[in-house]
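From the shared-data thread, chain only:
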Amino acid sequence: MTDLEFSTILDTIETFCISDLGREAVRKIRPLNRILELKTELNQVNEYLASFSNENRIPNHYFEEITKEIYLLGIEDSFLEGTAFIKIASISDRVNELLKFFKKFKTYYPTLFQQSENIEINKQINSSIKELISPFGEVVDKASPVLLGLRKEINKLRGQLGGSFNKALTHYANLGYLDDIRESVVDNQRVLAVQAMYRRKVRGAILGNSKTGSIVYIAPQATLQLSRELQNLKYEEQEEVVKILKSLTNTIRPYAGLLEKYQAYLAHLDSLGARAKYAHKIKACLPAIVREKKIYLRNAYHPILWLENTNKGLPIIPQTLELNERQQIIVISGPNAGGKSITLKTIGLLQVMLQSGILIPVHERSEVSIFDKVLTDIGDNQSIENQLSTYSYRLKNMRNFLKRCNANTLFLIDEFGTGSDPELGGALAEVFLEEFYDKGAFGIITTHYSNLKVLASELEHVTNANMQFDQNSLEPLFKLHTGQAGSSFTFEVAQKNGIPFSLINRAKKKVEKEKIRLDKTIAKLQKERNELQKKADGLVQEQRNAKEGSEKLQMQQQKIQDKIQRFQELYDNNQKMLSFGRKANELLNKFFQKKNKKELKDEFLKWALIEQDKHEKLKKEKLENELKKKNDDREKPLSKRERTKINKELRSQQKRKDALLKKIEQEILPEVKKARVKKEKINREKAIEIDGYQYQVNDVVRLKDGNAKGTIEKIEKDIATINYGIFTAKTDVDQLELVKKAVK
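Structure, as tokens:
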């Protein structure tokens, strides 16, 4: 990882930490190859990054380290100071707040919530500490009755001491024995500043003198006894404070393990936050983690170079590269200073960063798999200390690669095979490449060796690639193109760097003609490919513009269609409301005319049931149309599962309909029963009212078990003759019920 400058990434991330333990956690970050653990770590960083752009920001999680306090809690009979308890209470408060936050917003931060679920919320620690310790880390007066009494006595004694000293100060000042400064403080005790010539005339204890000796500092005799009593009380106070602190320490001691978890949780959260802030700075994201062996990095940036160029206002060109089962190894060739090494470092560094739980600056649709090992050999690693040449060092590296390489390895080698005779070194490099290929390892190498370019074209799953170069301006384009080997542009680069043309021509004559022809052919092909690439880029841009225009028109059309549909729905709803209003008005007018509540309720119930039936039919038709459309789209009959779903929905609709009817019945029946009871009550009152009544001619009556009304024509021996208009009838007076008395 030294070759890839991974430590520089960690140094940058470390600056975003808010605690020392967070910085320590960042320094310990190493690549992971357990996919579940890695996904959890990456998701947590990604969720923290997402918190920057939503309203539910993660609360502040700054904390002071309590490693020393946790260690002391593990020692029997030890006790903590008040300030230590304040730090413990602060950490406990902070963690409890975070645990509640992630529980409340678990839909926003599912992985962070899952991590916090394993940590216990504890309120006892805080309540125990805050009951005895003030926010300033001092034991409160009410911590114990003894301490409260001692502090009251101390305050009282201090008042007496101050009064006694002021009395002595006034007395000796009036006598002219004191210096202009009058008083001073020695060993936290007020003393009189007595002129040296009068020191024998002032009663008290000499506690010191000035540098010149002109002033003698004397504690007045009257205050000495009070000072001794105050010291004794302070000693007793301190003993009581220690006693309370020991008791509180014993109370907190069982939670030492939990506090250790709290601190580790906050340190890890600090590490996650620092990685998220770094990701935000370099515009990084989380690509898809796939199980198949694959690396597809789209628009990938080297993060260190990106930051440097951004700060300097310089552009940086992204790279797109893919490794898969069909493109297992890529051999990159091209001119020096063309960007081969930086491309190699970019791929390796991003892979290591991702496997270390750090988001990377790529397009969000990139895909990456996890490797067990990432092996690198980049740069000139000549070792003076071990007396190894560059080639010897590289051979040792190759030996290590051959031992460790397997199908789940990613290797990255810069200037593969260099450091020895080109023909011999090239042949050995071919053998190494074939060995890596046979082991199924994924990798990228850069080289100038023609034999490796030829080998890459011969092996099925090895691909040539080149860094593009503008032959006209003799400037590198820093763009990677796969599928074709690149020329080294040796003479062109030499010409650009000011080598005389005559020397370049002499050098050309010394090279085999076939070699020059091959290099020229490659250069010509690359030039043609560059021109084709420019045309292809132009066509792609035109196609993209046309597609964007088409999508824009489709969006506008869809917006218009949606607006029309909303207007139609609004019109339909208005018509429906008008219809309901007319129906309600009709029922009310009918009620006003007849005053028949029962008829109004029956009519309203009937109307409600009709509307409910219409609603259910429309809903059923809509569901059937949707299912029919879905079935037509799929061009196959409904599955058993779908038919079951439809039947279940229909049964559910019927149940809702029955429930509504039942609900309406439950609401109306009590009203009907109330009306009947009311009617019976009225009838009983009427019956009571006419009990013992003497019927008279012209009274309007009816039979007790009938509804027809008639007028009494005559009464003979308790037999009444009743005229019903069309006919007359005779009945006993006892069977009659008075409707209306005769008008006199």
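DSSP finds 20 helices and 19 strands in the chain.
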